[in-house]
Amino acid sequence: MAQITATVQSTRSYGWGDKLSQVLAFVTLPLMALTLYMTLIYAPTDATQGDVQRIFYYHVPTAWNGFLAFFLVFVASVVYLFKSSRFWDALARASAEVGLVFTTIMIITGSLWGKPVWGTWWSWDPRMTTTLILWFIYLGYLMLRAYAPSKQQGARYAAVLGIVGFVDVPIVYMSTKWWRTLHPQQVVEPGQVSMPPEMLQAFMVSLLAFTLLFIWILIIRTRIALIEDELEIRSIENG
Amino acid sequence: MKFWQQVLALVHKDLVLEIRRKEIIISMFVFALQILVIFNYAFDLRVENVKSIGPGVIWVSIFFSCAVNVGRTIFLEKERGGWEGLITAPLELGALYVAKLIGNILFMLFAEALILPMFVVLFNLQVITLPIITVLILGTIGFASISTMFAGLLASTRAREIMLPVLIFPILLPVTIATVEATANHLTGTTAMNRAPWTGLLIAFDALFICAGYILFDQVLEE
User: Distance between CA A237 and CA A218 in Å, rounded?
Assistant: First the structure.
């Protein structure tokens, strides 16, 4: 216990994260509440889809943040392979985890939305397939870290997968798109129709709230990852 | 030794090993053959539907059996301590990647050369034609480029035998789609109008991931 306290003390050097996450908490939490109001009450009900269209305000922001997270994994992985600094590894690890959670929410909300609108939970449209493949790659990414013989090796392996997986995404998208041209196309594209201003406002607030939420969680998770590393190093040093 | 001399020496070593023990190619072939038989019952393949389902059946059987066996060129060495020797030897690690890649491509092609005639016999569908063989070779190179890199990466991790398919199948999705669709196009004689550039996609995939493997392999093996 004393050791843990000492570690947490020493990680005060990551104080930037502490300050920033406090600020983010003060901004994000009210903004989340505002998002609830804007998306569920303020925004008008969609004429054709009805209330189910409100999933859009949650589906698209989580999607955007999921992709942002995986892009960050890619960037952090490249930097880690060049610099081998623990921070970039912690950032990649945190981003992959948070990204996987956001992507899972995106897939579930998309599925819930697809059933009433398209009449099916799932269609193998290029974006959905690419997202599912991304989800699998980053699930494998976390498994790979868990199974690695040591943290350093796991970090290195994961960085390679983080790069290869990201490079693969455009090819996956192209191949599923071409595959799709031979099969029936989805006619209704959600969100393609021009929105009334209230809907757009609600969407922008939700997008901002989810992005800040993502950054907030990412900072906390990165700090936890750094503290975990520190603990491990100390426990090795102390035998 | 020069780069290609190193590669040749390593490939030669792997080939000699495989000729003596015949483990990898035989298990690839038997596994693929069993999947063919299982698919026959799972899908009730008949003359009317074999052309539409056949391409998927042949590629899934090849990909599954290779995914299970392809890592063993590296895992078997790891088990017997030869892998550490190779890493510490005065070799370019890029040469080690290229050699393992060539070895895996050769083993896979050999197993495929055995399984394709069996497919023709069992499903009465002629797939041994020049366009399909071309697709087969390109698909095999793409498959091997990814799986060789990840086998090297997984050599010292736990549960490596199951992690290899888990990691490579999502990444290989474009190869799976391209090979199945290109084969189906050649079988049904779809007009060039409806044909996506699958061969181009396979060539791009192969080139990209051979380069990635070559560049990243020393990162993977750095202890």
Answer: 28
> Rg of the Cα trace of chain B?
18
The domain ranges of chain B are 3-221
Q: How far apart are CA B221 and CA B155, in angstroms?
A: 9
How far apart CA A157 and CA A136 sit, in angstroms, is: 16
- Provide the residue range defining the domain that includes A122: 15-183+203-237
CATH code (residue A217): 1.20.120
The pair of three-digit structure tokens given for residue B95, joined into one six-digit string = 């040469």
Best of B177, B187, B198 to disrupt the A interface (most A CBs within 10 Å) is: B177
- Tens of pLDDT, residues B118-128: 999 888 888 88
For residues A221 and B89, give the distance between their C-alpha atoms in angstroms, rounded to a whole number: 40
In-domain check, residue A38? yes
In a domain, A28, yes or no: yes
Query: Looking at this protein, which amino acid is placed at residue B129?
Result: T
Q: How many pairs of residues across A and B have Cβ atoms under 8 Å apart? A: 94
CB atoms within 10 A of CB B146: 26
**Has residue A8 been placed in a domain?**
no
CB contact under 8 A, B219 and A147: no
Summarised one tens digit per residue, pLDDT across range B155-203 is 888 888 899 999 999 999 999 989 998 888 888 776 655 567 888 889 9
pLDDT tens sequence across B11-48: 999 899 889 988 889 999 999 999 998 988 888 777 67
Residue A4, in any domain of the structure: no
Check: CB of residue A69 under 8 Å from CB of residue A91. no
From the list B146, B166, B204, which residue is nearest A140 (CB)? Answer: B166
B4: number of Cβ within 10 Å: 11
pTM confidence score: 0.87
ipTM score for this prediction? 0.88
